[in-house]
Amino acid sequence: MTITPISRTQSGQPWLSDKEQALWREWLLVTRRMESVLAKELLSQSSISYADYAVLVHLSESAEGRYRIAALAESLDWDRSRLSHQITRMAKRGLVRRETCSNDGRGAYVAIEEHGRKIIAEASPGHVAGVRRHMFELIDEDEQETLLHILKKLAVQFTDSQD
To answer: Which of 18, 69, 134, 152 has its CA 20 to 30 A from that of 75?
Structure first.
């Protein structure tokens, strides 16, 4: 039995055109596989996971080496429960520590430990090489500018003013 697609969804919205559908599916494929490949490479070349790396990058780039947990969860686009579990696992390995917020008893910080700084410094060159190999070596500077322009245009809808 062959199903003939209808030209509109039940809500009246048009279906994606063949070109739109191809673009959307390629977008999904590339983003999933890029993250998967980079995560596997990172784990094989270092002692940390992709999630560890994401947390450590944010902490290591922070002027104080720490973040409010709620702000870090928002920055990573993770729910607080996921971040809390991640912090617990990383703290057991000496990568980060929790700190209380002296001026707000409800708030808490996560801070990078020296061991975390050492690990991120060791893992970063290989990760950057992977990003370069899987992305930037495959697209020229004009394509990079175009892609950046497109991504910024798409990202506007997800800014804080939209929450």
So the answer is: 134
